Amino acid sequence: MATVISGHRSSGHVGTPSVAPLLIRHVLLVTIAITCLVPFLWMISTSFKTQADVFTFPPQFVPRPFVLDAYHDLFFVVPMARYALNSAFVATSIMLGQLVFNTLAAYSFAKIPFHGRDVLFIAYLGTMMIPSQVTIVPLFILMKYLGWVDTYYALIMPFILGSAFGTFLIRQYFLTVPRDLEDAARVDGAGHIRILWDVAVPLAKPVMATFAVFSFMYFWNDFMWPLIVTNSEAHKTLTVGLATLSQGYYGTNWPLLMAGTVVSILPILVIFAFAQRYFVQGIALTGLKG
Q1: Which class in CATH covers the domain with range 72-285?
Q2: Where in the chain are all domains bearing CATH 1.10.3720.10?
Q3: Which band of pLDDT confidence, cut at 50, 70 and 90, is reported for residue 235?
Q4: How far is CA 249 from CA 149, 226, 245, 274, 278, in A?
Q5: Are residues 170 and 208 in contact, defined by beta-carbon separation less than 8 angstroms?
Q6: HEC states along 33-51?
Q7: How far apart are CA 200 and CA 181, in angstroms?
Q8: What's the predicted TM-score (pTM) here?
């Protein structure tokens, strides 16, 4: 009896996780998190300092004195509000356009059989391998001939018709939509547009929200193309405006530059916070069926 009880007690400890590996894992994760957060904390701290206190030694994470001069100059001296509105308008316009056209293309590649569909889709995906720098010169020449240089048209129109990445992402999700739902809609007399709008799109909200976040972030942070096609302050985006802050006559105004960087990051954090639930679902569900 004692042997059985002792054997039962010893088997109860089998599978119990060791404390040491778990502790090491948490310490490692906390260390990585702190390492990633330090530059952001330093950026925020610098935005509330004076120019003379930026490079003091030893470094001070808590500004002394705590000043708001950089944020005052950012909105009342530098046209940062205009830059931010331009970036928001451009990124939102492209995001909405790509959602519409990528959804239409994704549904066609996923649900509508036609001759050469797979070959055309593979060729379309092949455009993702072409570096964007290759198309800058011909695209700029096209914008010049159209008279769109230094206009919103040049910032928006080359990208509003969709992207191979967005089509691929949404198509992979549409492939997971059960065919029984489509057949039931066809029995009710629905065509492809009705099936897309009433069946596929409501089910694809997670992946569409995921792509919306990706698209907005990309064009909000885009720098090269806006730098090339904009000349006036009225059409410069936030990234181009931030670059001009680092070219002061008396050197870089670091508090002003860090304040502008903080302002540029806030919309991305807000969007990600609101779309996080859809973002996680989209990442988890996309690609279950190829």
Answers
A1: mainly alpha
A2: 72-285
A3: very high
A4: 28, 23, 10, 40, 46
A5: yes
A6: HHHHHHHHHHHHHHHCCCH
A7: 9
A8: 0.81
